[in-house]
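Give me the fold.
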Amino acid sequence: MNLTNNHNKWYLVEGNIGSGKTTLLEKLNQNENFEVIREPVNLWLNIKGSDGKNLLQEFYEEPVRYSYLFQTMVFKTRLESIDTPQIKPIRFSERSIWTDRYVFGKSCINSNKMNVLETNCYHFWFDWLEQKFFKKPDGIIYLRTSPEKCFERMHVRGRNEENGVPLEYLQELHNYHEEWFNNWKETPVLVINNNLDNKWDDMLDQVNNFISNSNSNSNNLSNFCVNY
């Protein structure tokens, strides 16, 4: 499966829970030359057990029981969400399989929410998916936001499944994001500090400049990175 052709560009938007990814993607989607692939949260919410609880809720309530199941379904639904022809020059995806491997899955493994057998199966899934389906992105946009600010925003949006998520968990995820990008050498990374609210024009300028620079030798695609 070829997710993009040689002329299209693919960027990831990464960040902690509540870091501002959704709002940034909404604004990027206003550009007629950009397309946005959202994180498939609705799919996780629609998969329910006999007690009526959805997959995300079960993961948060009983992480030891459901971490492996949840992370496996996350792999599958991420692949499904981007398995569509790219019709515009630039595509943005909300998170990626690398987020799962280096942040959320890593958290589950290091906190012993997955046992050894589940961890080995998880790594098997990841290695196969990465090799078979995923080229590296053309760049990553990382919204660096303090765990305290993420915690505040998470409670403002009020997603029921996240009600019991503690600040300590957001701090752990923040640390794993930082470790990931400090060691990531595969593609360029744009780090945007997003502790301040309503600075979207400046953020969009940074994204446009980042894309323009990375596309400077690619058929003048930088011409598409304007006019919001």
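The first strand starts at residue 9 and ends at 15.
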